[in-house]
Structures
1.
Amino acid sequence: MNVHRALFDAHVERWSAALPAGDLYAPMAYLLALPGKRIRPTLTLMACELFGADPRNALDQALAIELFHNFTLMHDDIMDAASLRRGRPTVHAQWNVNTAILSGDAMLVMAYSVLGSDPYILSVFNQHALEVCAGQQLDMEFEQRAEVGLAEYREMIRLKTAVLLSAALRIGAIKAGATEADQQRIAAFGEGMGLAFQLRDDLLDAFGDPAVTGKEQGGDLRNGKKTWLLIRGLEVERDRGSSALRDQLAHEPSGRDVAVMIMALRELGVEQEAQQEVRRLAGTALEELGRIDPTGDRTAALRALAISLIDRAA
Amino acid sequence: MNVHRALFDAHVERWSAALPAGDLYAPMAYLLALPGKRIRPTLTLMACELFGADPRNALDQALAIELFHNFTLMHDDIMDAASLRRGRPTVHAQWNVNTAILSGDAMLVMAYSVLGSDPYILSVFNQHALEVCAGQQLDMEFEQRAEVGLAEYREMIRLKTAVLLSAALRIGAIKAGATEADQQRIAAFGEGMGLAFQLRDDLLDAFGDPAVTGKEQGGDLRNGKKTWLLIRGLEVERDRGSSALRDQLAHEPSGRDVAVMIMALRELGVEQEAQQEVRRLAGTALEELGRIDPTGDRTAALRALAISLIDRAA
């Protein structure tokens, strides 16, 4: 992974340094330079190498994926009225909303500019880009709704998060000339990993160490955010006739006792259930890798990356 | 023109009718259905036919141009805090800002989805799409600046308005296999027409008949919008040592006497100068058409459209 990450870092730095001056471009360079894992472009390069090509061949496609991802961050932060991202002001907080809208738009155009004109890559990219928009739309709808089911939540996460990991891998594979069957396997691996990754995120909010995550423990719970944990917790409570979570949600966010909510999730068995679900999703995803590479030699790095993502503490 | 317009109208209606349900897509259909001239897609079809191909071959590219144009309208209306477009509520007024951001994003992705994968068309589209963003960026910057020069204004209009007309024509020409030289000519025609079209817009604001335009006479002047007329008017005033425009601009918008400002523009010779400039730009543009088609037979419809746009009263 480090080799691929270093390759990509150099590529994105060259690209950022070549941007024209002005407020249309400066927010792009600013957002790209915030500390981040750069998982998606790394996956593109690794998939390209896995199927026998030089990962450098996929640098522009990896860049397109990363530009697209950052475009969604720029606009999602406006929609969520978020003032901080990775501990730094968001683009609309640092500049203003109009600049964040317009610079995001231009960033999406630039993603297409570097993506190239391979018809198959374009169609995978377009399809997944639209799915990411549909996922964000669902996410906003869920905030307005009183009840969201676990299956709906999973579909939202699939669209909003998992499909882009899937597209990142598939595009790297296409670039290397992988067979359709192998493309489907690597895409399924990505989707499963994306679901596991997001569920791990939900777990970290409630059960992570705030000194490591850098976030308030249970921030999502306090805000009543309909995550896997809260949705499932309320389901189990309904079955059992208990109401610790529901009672806390009846208060305003500032009046909620987050420690009580976390305790309730533990007692309801939801923490354990979520951990099992992460392992199940990751296991199924890794099986897809096994179908591509039965000996495991060529996929060792991808496996290690996958495991580091689902075991991560921050 | 009517044939091309009818072809396109049927295509866009089919496309809109096939959109999935939900708030991600409904704003697209809503905006596309507002009464509009649909100049850009019509130009794409006409250019395709001019260079010897069936205009139906360029329907998807014309749709891509129209989707892109409507995406910019959706986002520009947010940035300009505009509540009305063509007499109807803007998307963010009808739904909300977040929906307008996200539906606009998805509309841009869908523009690419229908554009196809011709590398040359993609590169023309990408370049011009980025220029349109740069034009909107300049437009917003100019609002914050005390002084804007005529050359800067022209460059802003070129980027924000003229290049998309140019791209619409060029893409139609590429689709028909036109030579590079002919592509450059039709693109130059489009750019000149776009500049003339926008200057005609500025003239109609001050000197048009509000009963025909449907807008408050001198609305741009009241708002101190830095149009060609106001920029040039202030220049001439400075040279002459007069100050009617400047005096009015010293008041708040609600206290400005628009009739005095319109009179001043007439007396300073700016109305006449702008009319000459429209004719000059249109004349140069039409010369480019003459280079493509010396007898004028094949370009009669394009010429008629161009003349109707610069002579229009609304």
2.
Amino acid sequence: MIETIDRQSGPNTIEIRPLTGIGEVHAGDNIASMIVNAIQGGVSSIEADDIFVITQKIVSKSEDRWVDLATIKPSAQAIDYAALVKKDPRLVEQVLRESSAVVRAAPHVLITRHRCGFVMANAGIDQSNVGDDSDNRALLLPVDPDRSARQLCAALAALIGWPPPVVITDSFGRPWRHGVVPVAIGAAGLPALYDRRGEKDRDGRVLAVTQTAVADLIAAAAGLVTGEGAEGIPAAIIKGLKLPPGDRPAADLIRPPEEDLFR
Amino acid sequence: MIETIDRQSGPNTIEIRPLTGIGEVHAGDNIASMIVNAIQGGVSSIEADDIFVITQKIVSKSEDRWVDLATIKPSAQAIDYAALVKKDPRLVEQVLRESSAVVRAAPHVLITRHRCGFVMANAGIDQSNVGDDSDNRALLLPVDPDRSARQLCAALAALIGWPPPVVITDSFGRPWRHGVVPVAIGAAGLPALYDRRGEKDRDGRVLAVTQTAVADLIAAAAGLVTGEGAEGIPAAIIKGLKLPPGDRPAADLIRPPEEDLFR
């Protein structure tokens, strides 16, 4: 659990507020400003414990992470993989360029380890609902999502007066479980991973659950209101959550291949 | 995204309310009644869209899923695994009895496929904070968590007048990512997996994200306030979330081994 604090709406209640009306994001846009402007009640309604959750797509758009697939010349390796996975060889080429390893390639499935460490489909490259020319455009993840989170935290601080916790999310599939869930790919101003090793439970027994993926819980909670494309709600604010102390990036959530306990 | 509805506390805001004061659960207890009694404002404050999220431990306790390890005689196989994973051979024996396959055994790590299909550590058997005699007692998962969810839904209906959505959660580790997150192991009254295959995005492109793990998002969101042991907050109510139609169990979330795309 993450301790919570009293709120006007009831003791210990947490609120998840979708931010509607942010609008289409273009390269170079100041999304911190767009987000603050979308908050009902304005800056004065922002509270000290508010957590800003922002979906990857608008971060990537503001950072101009577009690739025009028409300009991509696929390698022989990409062409081979494309035949296997039945995807556009230019997209596959871009996936390989974004990745450090291919984890699984099968018809309609290309799961890689992104160079940032995330194991995910298509290296997080998005061709759904990216704009009018989407047939040939693809949107990459931010170059360094933790850096993006720190930058957004600083940009928000300039507007609201303090650096708020920021989580950047993307939706991942999972081994062994159907369906996607949002997870944190970038974080600033909070401990993305809450390490409780050594703490004890009520009976004095060392806690069996010692590391909580705080930023992933926040990402999933915000995912109840944010959209993966068509719906156009690209950010949310979580109110009332008392975070554990610390400021650690989403990179802490990545389990390196040599530590993978599940295979 | 899952569509949301307007709430008094603000447009489209979702609330997560921890249920404190449920108290210690014993075998045979009517936890539906204990949960309803713990709701601030009483039954009249329960709204038609409220979702009841209940952690596995109190469900297992009410179903008397205790095992006294002193009564367990480990098999030769359990003794061999116990030496490898450095755990109590009696616990390992019970893990094996609860499991259909061992996924990974290594020092301090025993990940199995639970007979219900969940891939998880120690078959979900809990030795942390299970009560006073915890040295020799272990708490198993409910026999059939989806059935438990249906029973809780019916028991709640008897108290509040309609069958509310119910999600039973437990915390799972993940391949490739550090830290645990709560997921749904049982569900009733909602579509645990929201299948949107065939829907299109704003640009008419078929959605890339087609299956959302709704019950897992709900489990993670509730995990912001519920506890994995010491904290003693075993349930939460989520208010304001408009669920997609349907009533499908948490079993829908399980990806069978033969479909595993990640390995």
3.
Amino acid sequence: MDIQNIGFVGLGLMGGSLSIALKELNKSYHFIGLDHNEVHAQKALELGLVDEVVHNIDSLCHCDVIFLSVPVDGIISIAQQIKPLKETCTVIDLGSAKAKISNSIPSTIRSHFVTAHPLTGTEKFGPTAAISNLYKDRVVVLCDIEKSGKHQQKVAKTLFQNIGMKLVYMDAQEHDRHAAFISHMPHALSFSLANSVMKQEARNSIVALAGGGFKDMSRIAKSSPKMWEDIFRQNKSNVLEAINAFQSELKKCQKMVENEEWDKLNTWMTQANKLHDIL
Amino acid sequence: MDIQNIGFVGLGLMGGSLSIALKELNKSYHFIGLDHNEVHAQKALELGLVDEVVHNIDSLCHCDVIFLSVPVDGIISIAQQIKPLKETCTVIDLGSAKAKISNSIPSTIRSHFVTAHPLTGTEKFGPTAAISNLYKDRVVVLCDIEKSGKHQQKVAKTLFQNIGMKLVYMDAQEHDRHAAFISHMPHALSFSLANSVMKQEARNSIVALAGGGFKDMSRIAKSSPKMWEDIFRQNKSNVLEAINAFQSELKKCQKMVENEEWDKLNTWMTQANKLHDIL
């Protein structure tokens, strides 16, 4: 497994943090970056996240590995633009919704691709948000892995494992449904919570009264609108189903409070406590 | 301000952590505990959270300070049982909903009471959950403080400040409305989230896919059903109003995803990002 040149399309939190982790692993890797935001590209160069910046995808075709760490729409569009790749090239995309990506990669280059979802992130974005341990001890879901070439499977697994990640395998459709419930819908809640509270409450009351619970629940409302617009678009039907399921539970809670069914409410909350046995 | 004996009604997370903080402040305080749960009372004695355990509220009447750290219902019931207190006795309740407490204390002892809401906690409960720095650097809201005696005001302010808390003053009604939006409704969301996800998702998917966002949003779903049943009861109308306000934002989000109004959704999420400027 001979890797020298590693390309990054997208030099934000995810790409930048990955380059830091890989550089710590092997100082001899040469990193080449591409970002349509010129300010981000220059900042990434300045911060040493990449050794070189290029301006079009063709300039990455000689790379041994190319990471696509841009929103899902961007990944799909880049997959259409990629010219024939050298046989040993591995393209790894890091999108949060996988089925549309997995199905839209042209069949001529499908085996080069490994579609991965690293379950990590912070609410911050851009190259200055990059941190060294973003990936360590976190899970990466590899989707439809049987569609990737043997060499590409090996490269992706080795790199992710070497930066301390745990591998999980899933069908892309199945991944998207799970992700809608466990990640995407909770983001919709957090955005809704932030907006409802800011509409009703003055800044100083929020500062005075926000305990750990509110801070935790509203943290991801600070996430990138560009990225989340894209995830909601790519995983629309699953996200809507998850929002529905949540609404039906909240309505249940509302009715029990309204009707003063305290024992029933207590049982329902005790049920929720069971999450403790899982996480 | 001469304080020797401090009583605690309720020896769980809040009372236990308070006794640890006060003991660190002054080793000469003598702590007397009361808890209707005998196992908790014995455990608190074992852990050194109290120096002595008593079995009825009358046995606390000689105390200089009595903390009531039980659910709101319990506080209201205890306020009815308290016998005439010595002039310098200060009773401080730590309930999370304040208007019903503030209004139900018999007028003969109202000036002895300081109704406080310390904005802190963890999802854990019971005396074994007590930790030393639960109160440090957190806010405590003192409600309807003008109804407390001058001496009692001074005792409460001094003790809370000495354990590192920041004081905020509010009318009890106003407090309850703010708390519904910033603390109580978010708990209803977290319980609903946990229940909707556990219904749809298998344990292993939750473990595999739960990132920081889900963990943060579901953490408070592990909170005590007894305590939260009580808060929802005591602050019912405000909680229902806050749930309504949240539902209307979530519905907005749902409609925008359904109708693929991505620009509008982006603007709405950008609005939510503004929380970043506040917290």
